[in-house]
Design a protein that fits this description.
mainly alpha; globular; transmembrane; AA/rel_permease1
Length: 257
């Protein structure tokens, strides 16, 4: 779950807002697909509980070249997607600590966001597990809390139209799904280290499914909460939608006193 919940929870609401509430339907469909993938990775780990995840399974089924393509594609996707994490970190630092916008600060924040996890990874599996546990708790509980609180300030007038893009509903659904697919990158993470955990035949599948479901709850509640607390036009142009939601909730709570 720690690998699934990343920069997406902070940026995706603004990224899919131009498609309207149609994107919530796309999110639901993708969630079902992600759970199905988690079940697949769990079953594959039962058959071959080796470290490597998709690479191991592709090589076993289709040969060395297929294994290479799987590993190379996964590696490329991983470092390319890190750019989104850097962008999210820079955007939220500017909101939380205003007045320090410069290329030097942006570069320093982006490098820290990339290198701190890398250093933990270089320290070994035990360190990675500890960092994952702590970071997951620190992300999951506050995000879930803020998402639930945001529902109490939900205003239907903030929602855009169902198909904000104006084109075909199927086209909007597909476009939103293509962006939202990023949110479930990491569903394969438990299978990647199957050979390093106890009882992988049971634990990999369990961790994959429970982690995906937990992440889905946070993502869906968080997205609905942001959609309902931030005016649509403001959300489309926001670089820190979750922060904007918190500000609106605080303002609403103050006005209610």
């Amino acid at each position: 779950m720690g690998n699934i919940i990343g920069g997406g929870i902070f940026l995706l609401p603004a990224s899919v807002a131009p498609f309207g509430t149609l994107s919530l339907l796309a999110f639901g469909v993708l969630t079902l697909g992600a759970i199905a993938l988690a079940l697949v990775f769990g079953r594959l780990a039962e058959r071959d509980p080796s470290t490597g995840g998709p690479y191991v399974h592709a090589r076993a089924a289709f040969g060395d070249f297929a294994g290479f393509l799987s590993a190379w594609s996964y590696w490329t996707m991983t470092w390319v997607s890190n750019a989104a994490l850097a962008v999210a970190a820079v955007g939220y630092v500017h909101v939380l600590v205003p007045g320090h916008e410069s290329k030097g600060v942006n570069l320093a924040v982006a490098l820290l966001a990339l290198w701190l996890p890398a250093l933990a990874n270089l320290a070994g599996t035990r360190w990675v597990g500890a960092v994952q546990l702590v970071s997951t708790v620190l992300k999951f509980i506050p995000l879930l809390f803020v998402a639930v609180v945001g529902l109490f300030f939900f205003d239907p007038h903030n929602l855009g139209s169902f198909n904000e893009g104006g084109g075909s509903a199927l086209g909007g659904l597909s476009a939103a799904a293509a962006i939202l697919l990023y949110s479930y990158v990491g569903v394969e993470s438990a299978s990647m280290s199957a050979g390093e955990v106890r009882d992988p035949e049971r634990n990999v599948g369990r961790a994959s499914v429970l982690g995906t479901v937990g992440a889905a709850v946070v993502y869906l509640l968080g997205t609905v909460s942001v959609f309902g607390t931030v005016a649509h036009d403001d959300l489309v142009s926001s670089t820190a939608p979750s922060r904007t939601r918190s500000t609106r909730c605080s303002a609403g709570a103050g006005a209610a006193r």
